[in-house]
Write a structure and sequence with these properties.
The protein has a single domain, classed as Sandwich (Immunoglobulin-like). Helices cover 11% and strands 26% of the residues. The protein contains one helix and nine strands, in the order H-E-E-E-E-E-E-E-E-E.
Length: 223
């Protein structure tokens, strides 16, 4: 089995366990609002955007608080954390244009994972919260679309293990885009990345949703 296959199976197993834990939490009312939210469109997860439109190439300095010239981000392009990347976006049948920004990466505590009851599956791991913003820079209403497919990156450029959370996790909230997400609207999201030990940090992030994919030179990265 190749390396990606092993990672995918591990992520799925962790995701299922996390779902069970959060379903129990929902019984206590933590997920009351989730039931009122229409389901996300069929293909992505949830996530990210900038405060202005357009993406600057990795080689150029990011414009202060904005985009570096209106270019569309290309596969393999690298951005600084806090710098937006603009690209055509698709989530199921919903299509438009967004500007995505990984804004910061916060280190959590191993104890943050205890409520998921994952046991040895996350033993020794440390959660990092990859926070991002999404801005609608196109003309399509992206209400309830999902901007997932965000992973953390370790210092050597390899992907950190991700934790798929279904339900509410206040330390790293991630929902589909809100109703009325039209041009100029912004939203924030968060993805959980697991460092293998306390001595390793998650220092970057990547987006590999449509029109990009996993793999060096195929995703957008932030460092």
């Amino acid at each position: 089995m190749n390396r990606f296959g092993i990672r995918a199976n591990t992520a799925a197993a962790i995701g299922l366990a996390a779902v069970g834990a959060l379903t129990l939490t929902a019984c206590n009312g933590d997920d009351a609002d989730a039931a009122k939210t229409p389901p996300p469109a069929a293909s992505s997860q949830a996530p990210a955007a900038p405060a202005t439109p357009t993406a600057a190439p990795a080689s150029s300095a990011p414009a202060e608080g904005g985009y570096g010239g209106g270019e569309t981000a290309k596969a393999g392009q690298t951005f600084k954390i806090g710098q937006p990347a603009q690209f055509p976006f698709a989530s199921g049948s919903t299509k438009g244009t967004i500007a995505l920004t990984i804004t910061k990466i916060d280190e959590g505590q191993p104890a943050d994972l205890e409520s998921f009851k994952l046991g040895d599956k996350v033993k020794g791991m440390v959660p990092f919260y990859v926070r991002y913003s999404v801005k609608n820079t196109g003309s399509t209403d992206l209400s309830f679309a999902s901007v997932g497919h965000i992973k953390g990156l370790l210092p050597d450029g390899t992907e950190a293990q991700d934790l798929m959370v279904i339900g509410k996790f206040e330390k790293c909230p991630s929902d589909s885009l809100p109703k009325g997400f039209t041009n100029g609207q912004t939203a924030t999201g968060c993805a959980v990345a697991l460092a293998p030990s306390a001595s390793v940090k998650v220092t970057g992030g990547e987006y590999w949703g449509d029109p990009f994919t996993l793999g060096k030179g195929k995703a957008l990265t932030w460092k």
